[in-house]
Design brief:
The complex is a heterodimer of chains A (113) and B (116).
Chain A (H helix, E strand, L loop, with lengths): L3 E4 L2 E5 L4 E7 L6 E7 L6 E7 L4 E4 L2 E6 L4 E6 L8 E9 L5 E4 L3 E6 L1
Parallel strand pairs in A: 2-11
Antiparallel strand pairs in A: 1-3, 3-8, 4-5, 4-9, 6-7, 7-8, 9-10, 9-11
Chain B lengths: L3 E4 L2 E4 L5 E7 L5 E7 L5 E7 L6 E2 L6 E5 L5 E5 L8 E8 L11 E2 L3 E5 L1
Parallel strand pairs in B: 2-11
Antiparallel strand pairs in B: 1-3, 3-8, 4-5, 4-9, 5-6, 7-8, 9-10, 9-11
Classes of the chains: A mainly beta (113), B mainly beta (116).
């Protein structure tokens, strides 16, 4: 079945710097890769996603890149702000459990003022 | 629209007690899910319901049962709670398109469960 690894587990950056979180997946059939942000005590919320027919997608300060050959995808946050501090989860689609996702273990991002 | 709602928000049980977590969505989604979230382990799927009237096991189903009461509601039951079931439980829903077309999952606010 699908296995998703995520690195680093914790990341601290200075406000205004960039942050990069990387994920790898194992199932070559995976074709949808969402990223969720979870603030402390809150529910996970989708921030960006990418499908396998594109290599990069941007939304303001957030971008995601996908390398299907290497089976890895990354989240890039530019000009980080304190409100970017949260836990970020990557996920990859799987058909093992209907149409569902396997989530990575998460990255705790701290943006220091 | 309230989106996805869950009750209760917090619960403390003793080992062996039973309880049901409730989930409802008002987005007319076909698919609903129950996850548990433990530190350092991300979100793990317990059970899912692809459509009204169907339920299937996910990655970690042992010790749980579910009921898809109607299109809106999907409940999770712990028949005999164990300390290993201490976790935060999230319900989610999504609209699933064609066979290989995935969509965003919308999450509820979560239930923090402690089993003593």
């Amino acid at each position: 079945g699908e296995n998703v690894e995520q690195h680093p587990s914790t990341l601290s950056v200075q406000e205004g710097d960039s942050a990069v979180i990387k994920c790898t997946y194992s199932d070559s059939a995976s074709n949808y890769f969402p990223w969720y942000k979870q603030e402390l005590g809150k529910r996970p919320q989708l921030i960006i996603d990418i499908r396998s027919n594109v290599g990069e997608k941007k939304d303001q300060r957030i971008a995601v890149t996908l390398n299907k050959t290497a089976k890895h995808f990354s989240l890039h946050i530019t000009e980080t702000q304190p409100e970017d501090s949260a836990v970020y989860f990557c996920a990859a689609s799987t058909k093992n459990y209907g149409q569902n996702f396997v989530f990575g273990p998460g990255t705790r991002l701290s943006v220091l003022p | 629209n309230a989106g996805v709602t869950q009750t209760p928000k917090f619960q403390v049980l003793k080992t062996g007690q039973s309880m049901t977590l409730q989930c409802a969505q008002d987005m007319n989604h076909n698919s609903m899910y129950w996850y548990r979230q433990d530190p350092g382990m991300g979100l793990r799927l317990i059970y899912y319901s692809a459509s009204e009237g169907t339920t299937d096991k996910g990655e970690v189903p042992n010790g749980y049962n579910v009921s898809r009461l109607n299109k809106r509601e999907f409940s999770l039951r712990l028949e005999s709670a164990a300390p290993s079931q201490t976790s935060v439980y999230f319900c989610a829903s999504s609209e699933v398109g064609l066979v290989s077309f995935f969509n965003e999952q919308f999450f509820g606010p979560g239930t923090r469960l402690t089993v003593l």
